[in-house]
Specification:
Largest sheet: 4 strands, antiparallel
Number of strands: 8
Order of helices and strands: HEEEEEEEE
Radius of gyration: 18 Å
Strand order of the largest sheet: 1-2-3-4
Shape: globular
Number of helices: 1
Length: about 150
């Protein structure tokens, strides 16, 4: 029984190691780092065919909005923090705007400060290249429970 457990453990380790690298066309590639377990990435494709991906990731006791690109050939680019150090973030979505720029929408609370204005539905923009990201000050929607 111990040999079976060891074999299963070895297969799991191999599967995890294999999934950490960019897979060939038609295969999934894991997002880098400690991604929140129920995170759903936002996706948008720019005119040059690049797929832009935004997702939330834990950063100690804080959370970051992370951006990365996937080329038309399937090469996954390096991840970069678009907005970092938030008290909470959730479920980003990403749009390509008519002018070619990117706009992310996400629920979140930037800080627990009583005067915080970014504490529900938030939005940030970036040029088509995917950086730098600029946070719009204040709520993107009237609802206070968007996160």
């Amino acid at each position: 029984m111990g040999g079976v457990r060891a074999a299963v453990a070895a297969l799991v380790v191999l599967a995890i190691a294999a999934s950490a690298q960019a897979g060939p066309r038609g295969q999934w590639t894991r997002l880098p780092g400690t991604v929140i377990n129920f995170a759903e990435p936002g996706l948008a494709r720019t005119a040059d065919g690049t797929l832009h991906v935004v997702f939330t990731r834990r950063n100690g006791s804080k959370e970051d909005l992370v951006h990365l690109t996937v080329t038309p050939a399937g090469k996954v680019g390096a991840d970069a923090v678009a907005l970092g150090g938030w008290s909470a973030m959730s479920h980003p979505d990403l749009l390509r705007m008519p002018d070619g720029t990117l706009r992310a929408f996400f629920g979140g609370i930037r800080s627990t400060s009583p005067g915080e204005t970014n504490n529900a539905m938030n939005t940030a923009t970036a040029p088509a290249a995917g950086r730098p990201w600029t946070l719009k000050s204040g709520k993107a929607a009237q609802a206070t429970y968007a996160y």
